[in-house]
Amino acid sequence: MLVVLLIGAAVSVALGVFGRRHHPSGHVGWLGPFPSVSSMKVWLTLVVLALAVIQLLTALWMYGKLGLRQPPWLGKLHKTTGGIAFVLSLPVAAACLWALGFQSYNTRVLWHGLFGCVFYGAFTAKVLVLHSKRMPGWALPVVAGLALTAVVGAGLTGAVWYLNAFGWPK
Known about the structure:
The chain is mainly α. The chain has helices spanning 2-21, 37-62, 74-100, 107-130, 139-166.
């Protein structure tokens, strides 16, 4: 378990170091259908947060914490929504790291960057725990809980803050 946590921590630190040392470009080339970087980040993050809620509910259901019988499709739904959330988070994280870098000019921005870096480290640890046959039973809920906490923290200090400060992006 220590090796898994160290690998996850290394991913988190590497992202933070890259974001800090990389000179922010101020723009990205992958906006897709969105008119601005802010719009892309807010909309995709809101979808990721909605999928994170589904991840939490399906995990609780699979672990028997909702008191409901587990249908055969539940594991597939959990895996699919997690994969989609991860893929949708990538352009957001890339925009943060590439266009803005890891900054600390105020507390919100610092926490946002820390949550984002911790999410990818925790996600890495979660994948490693999932693929290991030698992890204790508590390992998966712990690293998955850390990933969920980090993605919600990043979403609250990013997209939700933006909505509160500026309203819905165009």
